[in-house]
Each structure stands twice: as C-alpha cells, then as structure tokens.
Amino acid sequence: MSWTVVSCWIEGHPGLASWVQAFGSIAALGIAIWIASSQRRVQLKADKEKSRLLLGLVVTLAGRAERAVVFESKEASSIRANLNLIKGLCHTLDAVDLMQLPRVELIEPICTLRDSLRALEAGMSDADKHQYLPTWLTLSEATLWVVLVVSSSKQISKLG
Length: 160
Fold this sequence. Notes:
Distance between the termini: 68 Å
Mean pLDDT: 90
Helix content: over 70%
C-alpha cells in the first residue's frame, strides 16, 4: 500500500480527523489517569515504608531506654556510662516527629518516655556535678523516673 492510496482514502473521509482527535483525547485522559494513580501507589508504598521504619525506630529506642536505666553497678563511672546513654536517647527522641507516628496510641508513651528520660538526665547530671550520683539513684525521685521509663518502654513495645 502506498502513501498515495492512504492519502486518497483520508481525503475521501472528511469526518476521520474528528474521530482521530476524539480517540487521541480519550487515550491522553486514560494515560494521565494511569500515571496519576501509579504515582499515588508509589507514594502510598513509600509512606507505608516510612511509617514502618519510624515504628521500628521508636520500638528500638524504647528498648534501649529500658536497658539504659538498669544500673548494674553502683560505681560512679558505670552510672556515668548509663547517663551518657540516657543523654543520647533524649537527643534522639527529641528528633522523633510525633505527627509522623503511624499510630496515635504511641504519642502518650513516647512523651512519657522522653520526659522521664529528660528528668532522669537532669537529676543524674546534677547529682554527678555535686558528687552524689550513686546516692541519688536510691532516692524516690530517681526510682519514679526509672519506673516511668520502664513502663512506657514496655507500652511502646506492645504497641509496636
């Protein structure tokens, strides 16, 4: 078939251009919808993965916090090592965006964990500065913060 025959056939059908245009418009709409839905699926998958990673991070931090408040030795140097872990955990927990958490039920225990670690850090730092760190850990204030850290850590682990 030569181009001359095709050209003659096209000229012989005057409504053909409008049909081709209509078909092209429908095809363009279909492709646009497919691209948009494909991008949405990719975005949902990325959001789901981000939520999964954030949940894993929070559960890991909770576990580390629980281990950080276990004072196996009453020696000041060992307790200072725990204090350094607590300081690092406070810093990391401050970076967790509560609005990005995958479950609303995590907000309260994470806030409790963060606040308790901050209070424990402040009390331990002050006690270390005044050289009564091992004694401070025996006070009811220290026990309260440790209990709150442990209980909120366990709650986070259950929710994770």
